[in-house]
Write a structure and sequence with these properties.
2 copies of one chain form a homodimer. The first copy, chain A, is of the alpha/beta class and 396 residues long. Helices cover 42% and strands 14% of the residues of chain A. Chain A folds into 2 domains: 22-268, Aspartate Aminotransferase, domain 2 (3-Layer(aba) Sandwich), CATH 3.40.640.10; 272-395, Aspartate Aminotransferase, domain 1. At the A-B interface, helix 1, helix 2, helix 3, helix 4 and helix 10 of A face helix 1, helix 2, helix 3, helix 4 and helix 10 of B.
Chain lengths: 396, 396
């Protein structure tokens, strides 16, 4: 057994997350641990909630980070809002809609699925038909930004439809928050969860959530107890809720919360609109370079997430070998496809701190070299064409 | 809203946890984030599991950290081992036995309680009687080290009793791991969970668990699905399990795992037996000082946890004011009592990295000064007597 300290290599993270973490965030996280009930810490928690409200564009009182990764944030939404026997309409156009279905069923509720092709946006017409056909549905659940395919759906329209049919909404914004507009109040979304390791460029392990007053009312009117003690917001809010008193529920992940606070301060400094523009700018340069190599993005243009680009793996290219070579030769990580997309796409992230010119050029140069290399003799056109196209995009 | 970075004060953490984190751990945590499927990270995960096996004194294959705090580790044990309709015998002699009951009930199972006084060990005779009276019980659940009172119970005897009655065991070792002997294989314990922020001196946010083969078999033979998707070990083990392949389940808290790895390397360097002796040594000095001040430990001598000392709050001393003064004047955190112990005890931790001579003297000197101060005119005997008694204890 090793008794050596672990020293990770310095990668560039251009997969679906975790994305590169800002050195400021890493440094903040390494500050001395203090108690989770320390009055100074409680002040920090209040700031953190305000900063999250800014990121989510909401004034929701219940806005806080769950002390566990995004999938626990998802489960927190379902476990608190569902009771056995409820009906939930779940949209699926990728992996995470399927995970929502699992959550619904494990809560003893019924999921009515609205399926769209992987790599395509959610069709609001189908959702409307399903809402009409299921007047007893309590909740509409969908993924705003599908991390498995790089597709974004029209959260505003979907929330409006849900409200017309008297449904609450659960919205997955794991990959969108901080990278592309998430407008919780404008959408009138009811329960929204995200992750820290995508466009917030924070370490993985926390899941910001925000709940509307309507959602809170639904929780307060439950007839049964939430099946998870750890995720029961009635209890969690004794610690994270408003008011002076902070009752112990679980020990908060103190240092990870320092990290999230710092990541949100950085977002606030840049400004949300600027961050969204930056993601769009570098996405366009990346796109130009990818197309100049003769590769294609699988998602139609108006359905793409700028921060997560699904690139079709060209014929003759060996998925795993190429990703291994990028990692070995360039310390560059890109993501594989999931489920039916495995072996068919690469997921190239440009998220948060990692969304910059340097990384666009690194990816394009490295990918061109590897694709034309010995292990993957794919013809990608003129040497340097991809980088040139990206630079051309920046100069426009 | 603040857009300032957060700079915590440098506290000395002598409460019930989080305890002071080693600078080595903080530094390890701030190393660059890499992907949760990076082959280098996977190697680190394997080392981490081996190091946890050492800490738990087990060869259990399923030994890993849950990606959330100790209370999620507790819930992982209950949610995976229980099915609706099961009967669980739960011992309660403090807060955490009560939390176990909550977990049992939320799994749709029935808790048969064995109650002991708060501040006293679990009585094996009562447990035996309850096992006899409930031949259908599937599990015996108890807390080895009650964090709310500083009591330790005889895990070895309790596990033996459970086995005689064909029950599995769930054992809470949150506060014991690394501070006082936890012998999972010798006890033949079946599902054991701990926390990182106690005697491992790591940051809060992770929960190491270990499951015996018998417990794993029970999970594999479930008739119903685990009600939590996030905590379902059948799924989690696709990522953390043995074998080469690591399937994505959730995004691991990469940097927190660096921290835990480093904390366990430190434990291995010192050696478990040495760590246990160190906790006993400083506990004895602390005890001598506390008694020299005329204060009393509420737990009988042979039931005490060396790493968590429950001190009776003397008449005339105002709990909250004194703790606030220790924090303000000495940057020293000690813990309040919980539940029926609130206002009656202070919890003074000597855990992991914080268990040292310097902290013993700091606590005794500061407490003597504050107790004799203007806000809390408690007579504690001769000036300096507490520190002198501790030093005398060390010289023996």
């Amino acid at each position: 057994m090793s008794t050596q300290s672990f020293h990770p290599p310095q990668r560039t993270l251009m997969g679906p997350g975790p994305s590169d973490v800002s050195p400021r965030v890493l440094e903040a996280m390494s500050r001395p641990t203090i108690g989770h009930l320390d009055p100074v810490f409680v002040t920090m928690m209040d700031e953190l909630k305000d900063l999250l409200r800014y990121a989510f564009q909401t004034s929701n009182e219940l806005t806080m980070p769950v002390s566990a990764p995004g999938s626990a944030g998802m489960e927190t939404c379902f476990a608190n809002l569902l009771e056995p026997g409820d009906t939930v309409i779940v949209c699926q156009n990728g992996v995470f809609g399927g995970r929502m279905k699992e959550n619904v069923e494990r809560c003893g509720a019924t999921a009515v699925m609205v399926e769209d092709d992987w790599g395509r946006t959610i069709d609001p017409d189908k959702v409307e038909d399903t809402l009409k056909a299921n007047p007893n549905a309590k909740i509409l659940a969908f993924v705003h930004a599908e991390t498995s395919t790089g597709v974004q759906s029209d959260a505003s329209s979907l929330c409006a439809l849900a409200h017309q049919h008297d449904c609450l909404t659960i919205v997955d914004c794991v990959t969108s928050l901080g990278g592309t507009p998430v407008q919780v109040d404008e959408w009138q979304a009811d329960a929204v969860y995200s992750g820290t390791q995508k466009c917030l460029s924070c370490v993985p392990g926390l899941s910001p959530i925000t709940f509307s007053d309507r959602a809170m009312e639904s929780i307060q009117n439950r007839k049964t107890r939430v099946q998870s003690w750890f995720m029961d917001l009635n209890l969690v809010l004794g610690y994270w809720g408003g008011g002076g008193k902070r009752a112990y529920h679980h020990t908060a992940p103190v240092n990870s919360l320092y990290a999230l606070h710092e990541a949100l301060v950085i977002l606030k400094e840049e400004g949300l609109e600027n961050a969204w523009q930056r993601h769009e700018l570098h996405h366009q340069a990346l796109r130009a370079g990818i197309e100049a190599m003769g590769l294609t993005l699988v998602v139609p243009e108006n359905e793409r997430l700028p921060q997560l680009n699904a690139v079709a793996i060209p014929d003759g290219a060996e998925d795993a070998i190429i990703r291994a070579q990028l990692l070995a030769d360039y310390n560059l990580e890109i993501g594989a496809g999931l489920g039916p997309m495995a072996g068919k796409i690469w997921r190239v992230g440009l998220m948060g701190h990692a969304c910059n010119k340097r990384n666009v050029l690194l990816y394009l140069g490295a990918m061109e070299a590897v694709l034309n290399g010995l292990n993957a003799p794919v013809k990608t056109g003129d040497k340097g064409a991809a980088v040139a196209a990206a630079l051309e995009s920046y100069s426009n």
